[in-house]
Amino acid sequence: MSCYEIVAREDFSDVTYLLEVRHPMMAKAAKPGQFVIVMLHENGERIPLTIADFDREKGTITLVIQAVGKTTREMQQTCRVGTSLHALVGPMGIPSDISHAKKVVCVGGGLGVAPIYPQARAFKESGAYVIGVVGFRNKDLIFWDEKFRAVCDEFIICTDDGSAGIKGLVTAGIEQAIAKHPDIDEVVAIGPPIMMKGCVETTRPHKIKTMVSLNPLMVDGTGMCGGCRVKIGDTVKFACVDGPDFDGHQVDFDDLMTRLRRYTKEERMALDHWEKEKAGKADKGCRLKKTIDNAVDGVKS
Amino acid sequence: MAKKKTIRSIPQERTPMREQEPAVRSKNFAEVACGYHPDDALRESERCLMCPDQPCVSGCPVGINIPGFIKKIGEKNLRGAYDILTETSLLPAICGRVCPQENQCEGVCTVGQSLEPVAIGRLERFVGDAAIREGWANIPYIEPNGFKVGIVGSGPAGMACAADMAKAGCDVTVFEAFHEPGGVLKYGIPEFRLPNEVVDAEINNLRKLGVKFECNTLVGRLFTLEQMISEMGFDAVFVGVGAGYPTMLGIPGDSLNGVLSANELLTRCNLMRGRDFPNADTPQPMGQRVAIIGAGNTAMDAMRVSVRLGAEKVYCMYRRSRQEAPARAEEVHHAEEEGVEFHWLTHPVAILDDGKGNVRGMRCVRMELGEPDASGRRRPVPVEGSEFDFECDLVVYAIGTNANPIMGQTSGLKLNKWGYIGTDDTLATSLAGVFAGGDIVTGAATVIEAMGAGRKAAASMKAYLGIRDTCKPYDQDKEKLFGIGLGERNFARVKVA
Fold first, then answer.
1. What's the longest Cα–Cα distance across chain B?
2. Do B214 and A44 touch (CB under 8 A)?
3. What is the value of ipTM here, to two decimals?
4. What is the pLDDT along chain A (301 residues), one digit of tens a residue?
5. CA angle, A212 then A214 then A217, to 5°
6. What pTM did the predictor assign?
7. Cβ B272–A219 below 8 Å, yes or no?
8. Which residues of chain B neighbour A274 with C-beta distances below 8 Å?
């Protein structure tokens, strides 16, 4: 039985953390733009997480996660070096088209910074001129800037409060890049839907091809439930097998954002239930005594 | 000498099988059909006339020796009955529960010409359950033959193929994308029709045969079919990945919150323990007034799950009439007993928004049956001016599925124009050594047909690998080598001292 062991962990902030997981076959097969589905334990839910990096020699893949809901918070608490995930499957999705773009802007907002990294690296390896634009709320939340500088010809940091780089959203960074380079072939933007929508509207008047990576709710990730369906132009596509990359100018972001709110009530319930459970466990008495009692009962029966 | 059985001497009425009462069972997920008591099985086995024609055997998609196993039940030799069943059907506890017997063996039963047919399905289930309870699994020692076989997909087609190849001595590995094996038997068919324990028991029997299961493996993406043959050392591969890509209606309001495919509803409930939320983490979408579109087995499952999950009202909308409904007769009957409201000849035209992106209702139109279409069924035609609105808060589509696209995207397999894998009569695909069967070849069908395809592919794979069934003697006149008949008499027997 495969064991998806965590071999490294880094905390970038009190909500963002990195997990490096051993999976030699997946490390060999993973390509930029692909994602995995993870289950923390056997009663867990299946959640999609983009592959932020892969090391084919070491045999590991890297996930960068934001603790938002019950599962990602529980993972933040329990996933230490040496622990394992119950299920890990991938690499899923159609790999990004690292096309023959000569000049490309790779944009990552918040958590999108991690998944845009392998794309930037792949474009660089294919010989393109890479302009990296990343956005964080403030300078304390910045991570991986060295990694980016290593693969980008130009690197623009944007912070909401101006504590580092440009003051503004990543769209300000894109505008700066467009103003300086009239010959940009492609923009790739990954981040929260509202950010991707903003990027797409920024590039639309300039008619620059903009690829986005969509993140709807998913269950199986293999194209059999339709939960991740998104509207692309006149058609409906499943982000897990027809994506996750799509032409940003065709995406109906409002529909995506509405569907992402589908389980807000249940998400709240799950968190409340978990908090209650943790509080209950805290005052359950001496664990050693319980272990002894259980063992004695076992012998008696 | 035993008195010869005639249609008048056998018990005239079909032995009833105990079922949970509708009012009770609509609140629990325990099995509805409780199975036969040994006395019931004995009595029902007497109803088989052992007629010379045996239409039941040809009515069965895999040709089970039905009179044979029924005779053993009559002799109170359940182990013998199990042995006969497992010569052809490897999963009797499953097939007895989910086969549409009324269209297969029982539909052509001789007794059924004048009385109710012999309850073959119930008898098969009885034997299958006894085997699980007693732990019988026909596991002889099998000499390994050195061939390595890969099976993609752990649903009924893959499981049947795996069993045959393992019995022939191959080293078999089954790859499954989900975290648990079983395919549609696990995620699709609910607990109250097919308990997951029964599925797991059959899977364990496969493990005892030496079959290995690798879950969390998405073939096509983690590695390709071509890599399996060229790099990973597989000598032959069977693809049974199913046709799960759900069809959406494409009407306004399709993407509102509260519209989902039956596959999603069932997977969340059956596989992801959605009904235990929040003790399990996957939320279960449910509503008070649930409308299911469709009348196949999947639709019936979705309706009956909704009843059990607490919906006040569950509606079935189907654009044709009850006669054309594709679901198994017993499922429609059970759904009606459990309080599902059927609206035949009704079709949705739009799903209505509550202004916040959620479902508040549906607009439907009445249909009438016109001329037959390509499938032979009468085509439904909307009745002018018959549109009406009604309130609902959850809409579930169970109107069919398409081929899963991943195999087509990641390999050189030739597909047909609908996206299903192209195969010849032997179920060989366009890639040498790769065979395919089940829904991914035929489109959505039944468990028993998938199993039949798995077995057929296994026979072809054995021929492809040159594995011979050493228990079968050469046919004297038909099989020749260099013009010499291979029948027994052409060889001298040499005794080894």
1. 91
2. no
3. 0.89
4. 457 999 999 999 999 999 999 999 999 999 999 999 999 999 999 999 999 999 999 999 999 999 999 999 999 999 999 999 999 999 999 999 997 889 999 999 988 899 999 999 999 999 999 999 999 988 888 999 999 999 999 999 999 999 999 999 999 999 999 999 999 999 999 999 999 999 999 999 999 999 999 999 999 999 999 999 999 999 999 999 998 999 999 999 999 999 999 998 899 999 999 988 888 876 565 667 667 766 766 665 4
5. 175
6. 0.89
7. yes
8. 278
